[in-house]
Structures are given as structure tokens and as C-alpha cells.
Amino acid sequence: MRNGICPKCASETVHLVEAYRLADHNIPITTWSSAGLDYYICVTCGFVESYVHDSTELAALAAKRPRVMPG
């Protein structure tokens, strides 16, 4: 969706909501830190994807959160 095309309906009506600025739209890492999220929303079909806003926080998330194993 970050390319502006919805993978569900192929529409080009994708909008960005930079929710990382909002306190309740994040993933906690520690008691005092969190990873903010950006939402990509297709206003044609309503499909939503979310991504961590700052990719430097991905390593901290990997260290603190359990990995989901395939299968």
C-alpha cells in the first residue's frame, strides 16, 4: 500500500494517517518507549495496513517481542 495501490482492490485511493504522533497508536517496547505506527487506508474498499514509522525501532521490537514461528 505504500506504493499508493491497494493490494485488495487495486484502487489508487490510498491515504496516509501518520498515527505515530498519537499516544494510543503505538506498540510498547519498554515501560517508557514505544514504536509509533503509520496507517495506509484505501478509501475505496476500507482495507488498512500499518507500519512502524521509524524503522530503527524494529531491532528493539524484535528483542522484546516473541517471534511467531511458521506452521
Structural write-up:
10% of the residues lie in helices and 30% in strands. It has one domain (14-64). The chain is mainly beta and 71 residues long. The mean pLDDT is 92.
Condensed summary:
With 71 residues, the chain is mainly β.
List the defining traits of the structure above.
about 70 residues, mainly beta, four-stranded antiparallel sheet, globular, single chain
Topology, element by element:
Blueprint (H helix, E strand, L loop, with lengths): L13 E4 L8 E3 L5 E9 L5 E5 L5 H7 L7
Antiparallel strand pairs: 1-3, 2-3, 3-4
| Biggest sheet details | 4 strands, antiparallel
Low-confidence stretches: none
Radius of gyration: 14 Å
Helix content: under 10%
**Approximate strand percentage:** 25-35%
What's the order of the H and E elements?
Answer: EEEEH
Indicate the overall shape.
globular
Number of structural domains: 1
Number of strands: 4
Secondary-structure class: mainly beta
DSSP helical segment count: 1
State mean pLDDT (0 to 100 scale). 92
Distance between the termini: 26 Å
